[in-house]
Amino acid sequence: MTEFWLISAPGEKTCQQTWDKMMLATTRTNNLSTNHKFNIPDLKVGTLDVLVGLSDELAKLDSFVESVVKKVAQYMADVLEDSRDKVQENLLANGVDLVTYITRFQWDMAKYPIKQSLKNISEIVSKQVTQIDNDLKARASAYNNLKGNLQNLERKNAGSLLTRSLADIVKKEDFVLDSEYLITMIVVVPKTSYADWQKTYETLSEMVVPRSTNLLFEDHESGLFSVTLFRKAIDDFRLKARENKFMVRDFQYNEEEMKADKEEMTRLSTDKKKQFGPLVRWLKVNFSEAFIAWIHIKALRVFVESVLRYGLPVNFQAMLLQTNKKTMKKLREVLYDLYKHLDSSAASIMDQPAMDIPGLNLSQQEYYPYVYYKIDCNLLDFK
Description:
It comes from Alosa alosa. By secondary structure, the protein is α+β, with helices and mostly antiparallel strands. It is 49% helix and 15% strand.
């Protein structure tokens, strides 16, 4: 499990003091978490009104970007099919694993110029990730269609002799072709009834050619026999065969059709292989882009929330805490004791039923006296 808590607290005399205090409380005596400074550059603050509105917008954008990150990761797992264990090594951000990227986070000045307003930066992210989402839908739809068509053909070539394609099984010489009077029928006979078939097939109806049956193929349940008869006896033979639990396949030998089926299978299989490489590359690149955008949104949220809570001039330390299940509860208590002086209302809020705090898009379950956002790196949901 890799879960990070991204928190911030106001700078004491210096931000380094804030950091040292938190380190002392969480690691030096009791090892509750592994901590990293989280560097957020000097962003443009703007007006209070804009910040309050932006707080709500960023919350929605955060959820949207996270959902796209997860969609891309999950689709990568679907596309890699049998090599799902390779998924993690393809889910990288800027060429490094996700934990490394988060713990060494550096703001990308080229993609998200800090001279722009906060609103502009959030719009750049929104536009970029919406584009990835739309592209993913289009690419996934095309690849899934191809995969679906191929699977349908593969299913036709497998399964029971009653339904499967016979193109790979029968040969031209198994059939009487181009005869005005005679026709070769294909019959599925259960293995337990082979002896019955040999004894009775010539008398199931009139006009069956004696000694014309051959076993062409068998699987673990039944065999595929050919039998030749006069065309005018087809219906009678089919009926009598069914009464004896012999199933006549509705099959006529057609070389062109069978060749077309094989070619279609080869074509789809080749297309799938051709699309696979570029699709995986696209998923890798765009997973990285979406994940990087997501962490920048987290950084924006911490900045906006910290200014709203702790006021101006901007003076706070953002900190990244890597937690584990065993110590989470204790870590919450330690942080609460460390920061409860920041917001006396947080104590009473935490004991009250859920409520919305205007401008601080946070439900009661995660309102703490310090700014807090969770980053969960468990992006895959393996069924």
